[in-house]
Amino acid sequence: MRTIKGPGIFLAQFAGDQAPFNSWKSITRWAADCGYVGVQVPSWDSRLFDLDQAAASKTYCDEILGIAHSNGVAITELSTHLQGQLVAVHPAYDVPFDGFAAPQVRGNPQARTEWAVDQVKKCLTASKNLGLNAMATFSGALAWPYFYPWPQRPAGLIETAFDELARRWRPILDHAESCGVDCCFEIHPGEDLHDGVTYEMFWERTGNHARACMLFDPSHYVLQCLDYREHIDIYHERIRMFHVKDAEFNPTGRQGVYGGYQSWVNRAGRFRSTGDGQVDFTSIFSKFAGYGYRGWAIVEWECALKHPEDGAREGAKFVREHIIRVTEKAFDDFAGTGTDDETNRRMLGLSR
Asked: What's the first-to-final CA gap in the chain, in angstroms?
């Protein structure tokens, strides 16, 4: 067993142009003031982090680490959610996803993909320079427009998509291996890796690559009506990252899983601040403690109702109260009588 590290917070939803969210020094101080001891960093946000410098300069990484430590927080991981998304984009999403890319590659899908691959590799190198062992990311998606089988999917369509997805990611995963960093794919709708089955399809095609791991976020499983507790039982050896994010699913006679194209507030399934939804976090933290999960518990604030700063402060307290400091002895040790091999044999009637 192992005590989970935390609480940490993902900074992506908080970074902005106003203080204290507009610089590395001030946002890390704010996170510590909220009660966090770790921060997960969006590698694409230049207000907080310079990815090119981090990949090229150990000195820069040491400076970034020093500022964080002086403010009382550690860097838990870097994230390439936006860049990972662009590793594989179906043409139907070219226009909206172009906004994630650097201006010079917009409107050019091939150049955008090459840029995204380079960005993810740089982030793996930067993670190594920072002394980190995991990176958060998305897989991207080629098959997502066809997730519902109507019209009937042509034979081989999904297999071709996953073959190509694995082909694009294999060099990145090999680079991850050389850096000693896990790629933790967030299992997420909109990605080709959106549940356990699709993760297995991808993982098999990468040759069961040791660095192709999972980011577990139960909120996305609640909205899919997927058993997130059993998911941990099945994949605990592959789960290397944990987003503490809540959700609720309240289907009606008018809408269900697909949400009727409604806004987040009006969907049957919607994200909530930690502790305000339906996720059984007591069970999740118990399972992770029992399986010896080695990573952090990272609050990701996404709520249709609550102010983000309130959600952040409440989230730190919530995680701290749910982390189980694992025991170093059995509760019934007081009644132990000692043992040896001969005693065990006599108790089994094997010694005469």
From this structure: 39
The values of phi and psi at residue 8, to 5°, are -120, 170
Residue with tokens 């694009």: 168
The yes-or-no verdict on residue 320 having pLDDT over 80 is yes
For residues 9 and 38, is the Cβ–Cβ distance under 8 A? yes
pLDDT of residue 331 exceeding 70, the answer is no
Fold of 5-347: TIM Barrel (3.20.20)
Beta strands in 220-282 (DSSP E): 239-244, 246-249, 269-272
pLDDT in tens, 14-58: 999 999 999 999 999 999 999 999 999 999 999 999 999 999 999
Place of tokens 């952090």: 296
pLDDT at 334 over 70: no
The DSSP call for residue 68 is H
CA 306/CA 254 separation, integer angstroms = 25
Contact criterion met (CB below 8 Å) for 54 and 130: yes
Exposure string (b/e) for 20-53, b if CB count within 10 Å is 16 or more?
A: ebeebeebbbbbbebbbbbbbbbbbbeebbbbee
Work out the number of other CB atoms within 10 angstroms of the CB of residue 290.
Answer: 14
Give 174-188 as a 3 state SS string. HHHHHHCCEEEEECC
Q: Which residues contact 211 (CB under 8 A, 6 or more apart)?
A: 173, 176, 177, 181, 182, 183
Domain locations in the chain?
Answer: 5-347
Residue with tokens 């969907």: 267
